[in-house]
Amino acid sequence: MVEAGLLERVDYDDGGRTRQGYAATEAAAELLPVLQQLAIWGERHTPTPSGGGHMALIHEGCGRKTTRGETCSHCGEALVPEQMSWDKPWHGRRDRLVAAGELRTAR
């Protein structure tokens, strides 16, 4: 994905150690509606995973789950990475999306 221009390597501090992670590029950010729509499709057409439910897409702008990829199905706002979280119940966490080039995870 780095070679394809979708991810870039980024150094970050992990408790005094410099580590390397990956951050989305602008090209990857443009794929967000497609990825979200695929996640929604998977929720509708695949069995519920054991150990938790399907991944849910949360629009942080209104705090509600959305069932559309480009605009929030609850409030109608356009979905942008900075206002989206992917709730992963099987991992017991919610990952907040960030703008291209940023690196952080909400737990």
From TrEMBL:
Highest taxon above the source species: Bacteria
UniProt cross-references to InterPro entries, sorted A to Z: WH-like_DNA-bd_sf (IPR036388), WH_DNA-bd_sf (IPR036390)
SUPFAM superfamilies documented for this protein: Winged helix' DNA-binding domain
Protein's UniProt name: HxlR family transcriptional regulator
Species of provenance: Janibacter hoylei PVAS-1
Organism phylogeny: Bacteria, Bacillati, Actinomycetota, Actinomycetes, Micrococcales
